[in-house]
From TrEMBL:
One of its GO terms (biological process) is SCF-dependent proteasomal ubiquitin-dependent protein catabolic process. Keywords: Ubl conjugation pathway. Signal peptide: none annotated. The lineage of its organism: Eukaryota, Fungi, Dikarya, Ascomycota, Saccharomycotina. SUPFAM superfamilies: F-box domain (SSF81383). This is F-box domain-containing protein. GO terms for cellular component: cytoplasm; SCF ubiquitin ligase complex. Residues 106-156 form the F-box domain. The keyword DNA damage does not apply. It comes from Pichia inconspicua. It holds the Pfam family FBO_C.
């Protein structure tokens, strides 16, 4: 019989907890603390010593950088401005000039015509939108050009809305709405009119607890329980197609593979992990692996489909799935995920499927489901 010391028991408990086996974890924690009531402190001292050294080095470097930053003037308080006051402040920057820190090194931007600077901003908008933002906050003059020039917001609207796959793509209706509802105020339209984002992925992480049943010879008074965790991913394309996946794999493993043409059977890294896992299962005395065939299961099987969006921000997707006769139809509402994160979340409306044989539509239970939040991915394009 194997003998475990207190630190081994604590480590096993931590591993059990990380995979959701909370009943087993609590049992091992109890055994570890029974041997030593300070086992958690000793575990940290033993296994996180190197981590603490690395963190302390990072803190030291951060403090060294702060020493080079001049102290803030205590008499200067942050501005508390409403939208009207902020616009007045930005407009006051129109008379600002480019002032070099070193007179011997003049600012080259000051020699460029206004139209050329607008062209630079236009290129940044198209190639990498965050670069436009970072460039515009470089100085007061660029703040004025980058944020108050109406052509900039017009270009942003063009990039955002012309690529949307609307249910009704009537051009006359859009022109009428732009004039009647937003009066050609493109900044206001960008703030109020929902749109899907393409240069990234929408992620939903679902976590909930599930009770199990006692084993036949169990003397436990309580039911075992475990933590269930999985992810849902959605990636949308401007051509009206989309990709979806439900998996236990974390974003760092899924995001590089979430593209058209990906085949799990051609993924050497994943298939290698599968073989290693099967070998571990066989060593434990069983021949059947719960992930014995990645291509036949949905661990990293990417499903494709189509989508459409309404002017009000209602999104409906129609995708294939693990059951051939079903079409899985999800409905969402585009909402804000915070004060400064506009149109960044897909809020669940319906999780359903359509039976193509019996021609019936049904909805699934979504009590445990979480809304999708957009995460930008630099390598993704339109």
């Amino acid at each position: 019989m194997l003998q475990f010391n207190r630190l081994d028991l604590f480590e096993i408990a931590s591993a059990k907890e990380s995979i959701g086996q909370l009943s087993d974890a609590s049992d091992y924690y109890w055994k570890a603390f029974k041997l030593d009531e300070k086992v958690d402190l000793k575990y940290r001292e033993r296994f996180f010593k190197l981590y603490n050294v690395e963190e302390s080095q990072k803190m030291f470097k951060a403090k060294e950088r702060l020493k080079r930053v001049p102290p803030a003037d205590p008499h200067i308080r942050p501005l508390e401005l409403n939208r009207t006051e902020l616009l007045k402040l930005l407009e006051s920057y129109s008379e600002c000039e480019y002032i070099p820190d070193n007179e011997d090194k003049p600012v080259m931007l000051a020699k460029l015509p206004y139209e050329v600077i607008l062209r630079i901003l236009d290129v940044l908008l198209v190639s990498d939108t965050p670069s436009w933002l970072n460039f515009s906050i470089t100085c007061k003059k660029l703040v004025y050009v980058g944020f108050l020039e109406n052509s900039i917001w017009s270009k942003l609207c063009q990039l955002a809305y012309e690529r949307q796959n609307y249910v009704d793509n009537g051009e006359a209706k859009f022109k009428y709405l732009i004039k009647s509802q937003w009066d050609n105020n493109y900044y206001k339209m960008l703030s109020e009119r929902p749109f899907l984002k393409y240069r990234g992925v929408y992620i939903s992480k679902v976590t909930y607890m599930k009770e199990g049943a006692r084993s036949e010879n169990s003397n436990s008074w309580t039911l075992p329980y475990r933590m269930i965790s999985y992810y849902r991913y959605y990636r949308f394309y401007a051509d009206g197609t989309c990709l979806k996946i439900i998996t236990i794999l974390e974003p760092k493993k899924v995001i590089p593979k979430l593209h058209k043409g990906y085949k799990v059977t051609e993924d050497e890294e994943l298939m290698k992990e599968n073989l290693q896992f099967e070998a571990e299962i066989r060593e434990n005395g069983t021949n059947k692996s719960p992930v014995d065939n990645f291509s036949g299961r949905s661990w990293l099987r990417i499903f494709s489909g189509t989508y459409a969006i309404s002017l009000q921000g209602d999104v409906e997707t129609n995708c294939d799935g693990p059951v051939e006769k079903y079409r899985f139809i999800d409905k969402f509402k585009i909402v804000n995920s915070g004060k400064y994160h506009r149109h960044n979340k897909l809020q669940w409306v319906d999780l359903g499927f359509y039976d193509t044989v019996n021609r019936t539509h049904s909805s699934l239970n979504r009590d445990n489901e979480k809304d999708f939040v957009f995460s930008r991915v630099k390598s993704y394009s339109y």
